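I am still getting used to C-alpha cells and would like to learn alongside you. To get us started, please write out a protein record for me. Start from the sequence, derive the C-alpha cells from it, and show both lines together. Once you have written the record down, we can walk along the chain together:
***
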Amino acid sequence: MDEVVKSSLILFVLINPFILSVYLIELIKGLDFKVLSGQLIRAGLISYIVFLLFAWAGEAMFENVFQIRFISFMIFGGVTFLIVGIRLILGIGPPVETLRPQSGELSGAIAMPFIVGPGTISASVLAGSRLSYPDAALAIGLALAVAIAAIVLLKKIHDVVRERDERYVARYMDIAGRVTALFTGSFAIELILKGIERWMAIQ
C-alpha cells in the first residue's frame, strides 16, 4: 500500500491542481460550476484511460511502437516539467496559452496537454512497472480523483467569494501555484536523474 500511495503522490504532484488552475483560470471564471465540473470529470476519464494504457504497456510501447527508448522520454518529461516549474516560480506565467470558455472540445483540451504530458505519462509507466496492474490503476485513479476534486473545490471557492474578494482568490491561487511548483520542479529533476541513472547503467 505504501508503494500505491507513493506512486499516486508522484502523479498528483505532477498534475498539480494549483498550477492546473492557473491554466484553467478563464474557464473557472467563465463557466458555470456544473458545466466546468462535467468537463473536468470527462477530462479526468480521458486521462485515466491514457494513463492505464501506458501503465499496462509499459516501456515496451516506447521501444516497439514509437521506436524510442523510455529513458529518453523520461528525461524529456523531466525537462518539460522543470521548465514549467521555473516559469511559474519566477512569475513568468504559463508556457502555453490558457483555455477559454469559447474553446472547442474543452474536456479533450484539458486532458491534453494540461493533464496528459511527458511527465505524467512517465509517472504512469513507472507506477505500472513498480506495482501490479490493479494497484497501478488504483494509484492513478486516486491521483486523478483528488486532483480533479481539488480544482472543483477551487471553482466553488472562487464562485463564493468572487463578488467581494476575487483579487485575493487570484492572489492566493498564484501563491499556491508557485509554492507547489517547487515540488513539481523537484520531481522533474528526479525524473531527469532517474533517466540518466538508467542510461548510465546500460552503457
